[in-house]
Specification:
Elements lengths: L1 H20 L5 H25 L12 H18 L2 H11 L6 H23 L3 H7 L6
Helix pairs in contact: 1-3, 1-4, 2-3, 4-5
């Protein structure tokens, strides 16, 4: 349940940012602010985990520290989706000169999707995926 909610929140925040928010700030400002926010949320997550660890045997599922850690994960995901995750799609459309923009965007988008697919395949746990990922069948 939480994974689905997290994916929906990531998708919606990326769409809202790309449609309405990306033109309000400079690209460098967006990347720096995203990096600072993501770093602070991950630092807060680590600090919460080290000072208030979850109880053994699943007793800490509804504890305040578990809720705080989940909130920090959601905030991290929101800051990633509105900065580093979404801005790369804008960059591949703006970085190339007009004469080679089509090829550059095609190569950039293929690189983004290839890296996503490679990470997704590496995290799968079945025999076909292990055979594909650890053999020389990569394109």
């Amino acid at each position: 349940m939480a994974s689905g909610v997290l994916r929906c929140a990531k998708f919606l925040s990326s769409i809202i940012f790309l449609v309405g928010g990306v033109q309000l700030f400079r690209r460098k400002t967006i990347l720096i602010a995203g990096a600072l926010l993501m770093g602070s949320f991950l630092f807060g997550l680590g600090a919460t985990l080290s000072t208030h660890p979850p109880a053994a045997l699943g007793d800490g599922a509804g504890s305040p520290s578990a809720k705080a850690m989940m909130a920090l994960i959601y905030l991290y995901t929101f800051s990633y989706s509105t900065s580093w995750g979404a801005i790369r799609w804008v960059y591949i459309g703006e970085i190339f000169p007009i004469l080679i923009r089509d090829c550059g965007m095609a190569i950039g988008a293929a690189n983004i999707w290839y890296s996503f697919g490679l990470c997704w395949l590496e995290n799968m746990d079945d025999k076909f995926t292990r055979l594909f990922c650890h053999s020389k069948l990569r394109f």
